[in-house]
Specification:
Layout: H1 17-36, H2 45-68
Helix pairs in contact: 1-2
Length: 69
């Protein structure tokens, strides 16, 4: 996601490594927050979907960073 909470277009990857690292940090913070709020029972489907989206975005950002090195 970018600063406005929008996902980066997968067809137009960001070339700035520093920006990618900031985005990755943001996604990881959101994922940690979500996991901290994760209930022991009766997880809501929207929370599962949000976790999957964040994990996919984290993986994508990590691949983009690896490609730049």
């Amino acid at each position: 996601m970018d600063e406005e909470g929008q996902w980066i277009n997968k067809k137009e990857p960001c070339k700035d490594q520093q920006k990618l690292m900031l985005l990755l940090k943001d996604v990881e913070e959101k994922l940690a927050d979500l996991k901290a709020r994760w209930p022991f029972h009766s997880v809501q489907p929207r929370m599962v979907a949000e976790r999957e989206d964040l994990e996919e975005e984290r993986e994508r950002l990590m691949r983009l960073l690896d490609d730049q090195q």
